[in-house]
């Protein structure tokens, strides 16, 4: 109970904080009740907030809709995690939070601690993957399989993830998929009465003949690693090409999608901007998720977006949509996320919108994201040399040149050294 609040249910002004809000309970507004509840959870048994947790206290207390924060704190999991941190039962570190359960609540508290500056930023998806691995390995019942998968995880999968920081959600999900594929292959061999060292060519051929393409590709990496480790005999492991050779979305369909997204005001603005970044600039979702407000620039009424170097001009009417979207970004209603600089902010504090959410938005819109991006890059490579397109869109010259060759682009003899030498104009926000 907040004893400093004056008035009863009929008084809409809190004497303690001065807010003209309906009281949360007799004699107390929701903000004051939230303050007392936080002091109880984050105090060291005395009601005084632990010094290291004062920024977290201020952040949660300053959030909009204090009633919702009180509802959150009434749950056992968040309250238990905050109490453990306040009492020192868990170290106030990323490793300490990683040991707290349930992990979803611990992740949310971690995001808040990073946002308020108590904890340093960390590669979130790598950390989540590292926390997921031990539990998954424990679920593998066969002791021999578990030992082999532990080695594969430690010396190959994790090693590759750490070589390309930061880790995107896509890469982390693919790493999980590869581990599950490896476990499925080992189970398949066990059903045939064999360990991996007893594999025959018939075992591998039948596996690759019966499995879908994604699972075959994921298994190939495990089998090649097993051969290098001399766990698998020197058998032929099919590789297959991961590059798609057909594009379902043609230029006419792409233009129709662009026209629809530009003119249909019933489509949410977030979806319209997201779709146009795919259809006009051939951007993958992982790169779109990494864009920040600093990547949207303007000079002399011209809008630019920093995808590569130099910055790429944004034509009308997309420029108007982009400027409007920047002013009305969603998921910023809480104090925890008010300072989010991502162009597409997610619901979690300080995080970008998850690529899975982006993919679902495009699916609901009827846009095949990969096909739309492929159609866009092939069209752009027919209009300009691969080296120029690669620089402006953030692609590697090698990948752009290969796509240009497949698309029959007319600029294939344009020398890479002759790419545009002009620097981006001096742009201001």
Given the helix and strand composition, which structural class is it?
mainly alpha
Instruction: Trace the largest sheet across and list its strands.
Output: 3-4-5
What does the overall shape look like?
Answer: flat
Mean pLDDT: 81
Distance between the termini: 47 Å
* Alpha-carbon Rg, integer: 27 Å
Major beta sheet summary: 3 strands, antiparallel
What portion of the residues fall into strands of 2 or more residues?
under 5%
What are the segments in which pLDDT stays under 50 over at least 5 consecutive residues?
1-10, 241-247, 416-429
Order of helices and strands: EEHHHHHHHHHHHHHHEEEHHHHH
Percent of residues in helices comes to 40-55%
Helix count, per DSSP?
A: 19
Give a count of the beta strands, DSSP E runs of length 2 or more: 5
* Oligomeric form: single chain
Summarize the structure.
With 429 residues, the protein is mainly alpha-helical.
Explain the layout of strands and helices.
Layout: E1 23-25, E2 28-29, H1 30-42, H2 54-61, H3 66-73, H4 76-87, H5 94-98, H6 103-115, H7 124-139, H8 143-163, H9 169-191, H10 201-210, H11 213-228, H12 251-263, H13 269-281, H14 285-290, E3 296-299, E4 302-305, E5 312-314, H15 318-327, H16 355-365, H17 369-383, H18 386-393, H19 397-407
Antiparallel strand pairs: 1-2, 3-4, 4-5
Helix pairs in contact: 1-2, 1-3, 7-8, 7-9, 8-9, 9-11, 12-13, 13-15, 13-17, 17-19, 18-19
Q: What are the defining features of this structure?
A:
429 residues; mainly alpha; disordered C terminus
């Amino acid at each position: 109970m907040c004893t400093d609040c004056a008035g009863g249910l009929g008084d809409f002004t809190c004497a303690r904080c001065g807010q003209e809000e309906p009281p949360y309970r007799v004699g107390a507004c929701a903000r004051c009740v939230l303050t007392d509840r936080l002091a109880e959870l984050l105090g060291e048994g005395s009601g005084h907030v632990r010094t290291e947790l004062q920024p977290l206290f201020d952040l949660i207390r300053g959030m909009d809709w204090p009633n919702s924060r009180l509802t959150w704190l009434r749950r056992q999991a968040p309250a238990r995690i905050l109490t453990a941190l306040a009492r020192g039962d868990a170290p106030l570190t990323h490793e300490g939070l990683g040991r707290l359960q349930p992990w979803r609540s611990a992740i949310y508290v971690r995001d808040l601690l990073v946002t308020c500056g108590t904890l340093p930023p960390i590669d979130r998806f790598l950390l989540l993957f590292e926390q997921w691995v031990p539990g998954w390995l424990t679920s593998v019942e066969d002791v021999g399989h578990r030992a082999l998968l532990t080695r594969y995880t430690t010396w190959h999968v994790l090693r590759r993830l750490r070589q390309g920081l930061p880790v995107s959600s896509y890469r982390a999900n693919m790493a999980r998929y590869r581990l599950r594929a490896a476990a499925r292959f080992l189970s398949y061999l066990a059903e045939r009465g064999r360990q991996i060292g007893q594999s025959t060519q018939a075992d591998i051929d039948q596996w690759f003949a019966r499995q879908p393409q994604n699972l075959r590709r994921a298994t190939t990496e495990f089998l090649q690693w097993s051969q290098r480790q001399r766990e698998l005999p020197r058998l032929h492991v099919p590789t297959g090409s991961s590059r798609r050779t057909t594009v379902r979305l043609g230029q006419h369909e792409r233009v129709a999608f662009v026209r629809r997204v530009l003119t249909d005001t019933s489509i949410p603005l977030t979806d319209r901007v997201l779709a146009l970044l795919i259809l006009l600039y051939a951007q993958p979702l992982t790169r779109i998720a990494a864009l920040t407000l600093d990547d949207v620039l303007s000079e002399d009424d011209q809008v630019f977006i920093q995808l590569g170097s130099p910055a790429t001009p944004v034509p009308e009417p997309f420029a108007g949509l982009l400027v409007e979207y920047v002013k009305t970004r969603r998921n910023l209603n809480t104090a925890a996320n008010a300072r989010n600089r991502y162009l597409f902010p997610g619901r979690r504090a300080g995080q970008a919108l998850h690529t899975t959410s982006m993919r679902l938005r495009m699916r609901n819109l009827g846009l095949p994201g990969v096909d739309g991006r492929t159609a866009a890059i092939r069209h752009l490579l027919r209009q300009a040399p691969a080296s120029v397109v690669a620089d402006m869109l953030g692609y590697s010259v090698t990948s752009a040149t290969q796509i240009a060759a497949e698309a029959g682009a007319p600029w294939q003899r344009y020398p890479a050294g002759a790419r545009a030498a002009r620097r981006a104009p001096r742009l201001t926000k």
